[in-house]
């Protein structure tokens, strides 16, 4: 396959990915990564314009997530600002690979011929990222709580990929693990694993007993009424994407410590996350 790749923007995961791809023999061109000092020590070509970067390869790798404000792509290692519209106007005829690509990019593509691949829609990467996400959530809980996790009552809202891994890790370090779910089959599995099952309809009965509550559901579950039942000294950690699962304005009013922890894989384990991204990329390369 083509061994030339252009990389535009991105966080430390992308910097580590560039290093790995270079070691594997890829010819890498970068743009909007000029503050990543490490890249100056390896054999990559740094260009000074988006057009140069795009013209250097048919495969373009962008940030994960692509944008945080739905206007510009994420470029934490650069002072360059690249709008989604500008990006869309330059990638016609290319294969563009990034993460969490919202409709804000697609609306600028119109009838342009671009193959878009969202890494976070890839099942293998999603599954692997749950490990880093769960570890990051536990790290936050340890740092923010005045209690040990061992012996604490910890409620996990949602029993999807992240919820399953998180519950297992919490159980392994001695937490009293409670898991909320709606489906009877999930509640049965929760019970089978040895955790305490909590049906959504029974959630209010348990909230006042919890020392730590970790949400994984991208829908507000802890609203004003439910937050009234939560202990003021409890720790709330929200792992869900916007709007999240906790009414953060209300939790702030009540004085409950609330942490909205997004993109944990890139923050707590960028090297491991980069390895997962590379593994997923190589699967994509085989397919295209």
Briefly note the CATH topology name of the largest domain.
Rossmann fold
What are the secondary-structure elements, in order, as H or E? EHEEHEHEHEHEHEHEHEHEHEHH
Percent helix range: 25-40%
| Overall structural domain count | 2
- State the CATH superfamily name of the largest domain: NAD(P)-binding Rossmann-like Domain
Query: Which stretches are poorly predicted, pLDDT < 50 over at least 5 residues?
Result: none
> What is the CA–CA distance across the termini?
9 Å
**Average pLDDT figure:** 94
Radius of gyration of CA atoms, rounded to a whole number:
21 Å
How much of the residues is beta strand, in percent? 15-25%
User: Counting H and I runs of at least 4 residues, what is the number of helices?
Assistant: 12
Overall form: elongated
Question: Overview of this structure, please?
Answer:
With 288 residues, the protein is of the alpha/beta class. It folds into two domains: 4-119, NAD(P)-binding Rossmann-like Domain (Rossmann fold), CATH 3.40.50.720; 126-266, NAD(P)-binding Rossmann-like Domain (Rossmann fold), CATH 3.40.50. Helix content is 39%, strand content 17%. The chain has twelve helices and twelve strands. It has a six-stranded parallel β-sheet. α3 (84-88) links the parallel β4 and β5. α5 (123-144) packs across α6 (161-172). The protein starts with a strand and ends with a helix.
């Amino acid at each position: 396959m083509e061994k030339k790749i252009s990389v535009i923007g991105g966080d430390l995961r992308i910097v580590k990915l560039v290093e790995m791809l270079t070691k594997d023999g890829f010819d890498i061109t970068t743009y909007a990564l000029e503050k990543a000092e490490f890249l100056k020590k390896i054999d990559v070509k740094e260009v000074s314009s988006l057009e140069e970067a795009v013209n250097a390869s048919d495969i373009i790798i962008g940030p994960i997530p692509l944008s945080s404000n739905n206007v510009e792509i994420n470029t934490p290692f650069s002072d360059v600002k690249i709008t989604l519209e500008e990006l869309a106007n330059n990638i016609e005829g290319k294969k563009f690979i990034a993460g969490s690509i919202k409709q804000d990019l697609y609306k600028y593509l119109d009838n342009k011929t671009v193959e878009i691949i969202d890494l976070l829609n890839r099942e293998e990467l999603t599954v692997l990222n749950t490990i880093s996400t769960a570890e990051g959530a536990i790290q936050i809980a340890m740092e923010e709580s005045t209690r040990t996790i061992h012996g604490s009552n910890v409620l996990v809202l949602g029993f999807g990929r992240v919820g399953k891994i998180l519950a297992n890790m919490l159980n392994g370090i001695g937490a009293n693990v409670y898991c909320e779910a709606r489906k009877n089959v999930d509640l049965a599995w929760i019970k089978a694993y040895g955790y305490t099952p909590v049906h959504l309809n029974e959630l209010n009965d348990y909230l006042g007993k919890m020392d730590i509550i970790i949400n994984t559901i991208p829908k507000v579950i802890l609203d004003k009424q439910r937050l009234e039942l939560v202990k003021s000294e409890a720790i709330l950690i929200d792992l869900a994407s916007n709007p999240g699962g906790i009414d953060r304005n209300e939790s702030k009013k009540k004085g409950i410590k609330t942490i909205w922890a997004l993109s944990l894989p890139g923050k707590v384990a960028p090297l491991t996350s980069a390895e997962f991204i590379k593994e997923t990329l190589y699967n994509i390369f085989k397919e295209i």
